[in-house]
Amino acid sequence: MKYIVIICVPLLLLVGCQQKEGHSTIKEVSSDSVTLRVIVDRVDTSQIKLHTELINMGESSITISHADPLVGAVVGDRMTRPDIVFSFVGITKRLDANEVYSYEKDTIINVQSKDKVLYAQALFTIDGDKKALDLDINLDEVK
Question: Cα dist. 139→26, 40, 55, 77, 85 in Å?
Fold first, then answer.
């Protein structure tokens, strides 16, 4: 019995610790062959970490031109949507089929208890055609 406890307790601790990790909130929105993916992790009660990606889901290469930031993000309540400020500088990137592109480094955003939604928006052109992808993430879902 003693040996069973010695074997089971560390195993249970190991499994329990692994289950606590990996609680990222991942949301995606697509238009044509391009997908915007936003990954959000809670750092603590007043901060979230944001990682954004643009993915060419098509079978051929495309050329995108985008603003800085590629994906803008702000938090707020459900009644008002704060503005996202873009500086269009015409950054150009060729994306091969199934290539994932992340222009910005991961960002830490301060949140308050009144903030309910993370708004994310990507503005870019694909071979000259203007695109805008919008995504709303309920902050209550971010663990």
Answer: 12, 9, 24, 10, 21
pLDDT at 11 over 50: no
Does 72 map to a domain? Answer: yes
Look up residue 99 and give its two tokens: 């290539």
Domain with 81 in it: what CATH number? 2.60.40.1230
Q: Which of 104, 107, 102, 72 is nearest to 87 (CA)?
A: 72
Q: 117 burial class (0-12, 13-18, 19+ CB within 10 angstroms)?
A: middle
Say which residue the tokens 């910005």 belong to. 104
Query: Per-residue pLDDT for 33 more than 80?
Result: yes
Dmax over CA atoms of the chain, in Å, equals: 71
- Residues 136, 29: contact at Cβ < 8 Å? no
pLDDT in tens, 56-89: 999 999 999 998 899 999 998 767 777 787 887 7
Q: Nearest-CA neighbor of 34 among 103, 104, 126, 128?
A: 126
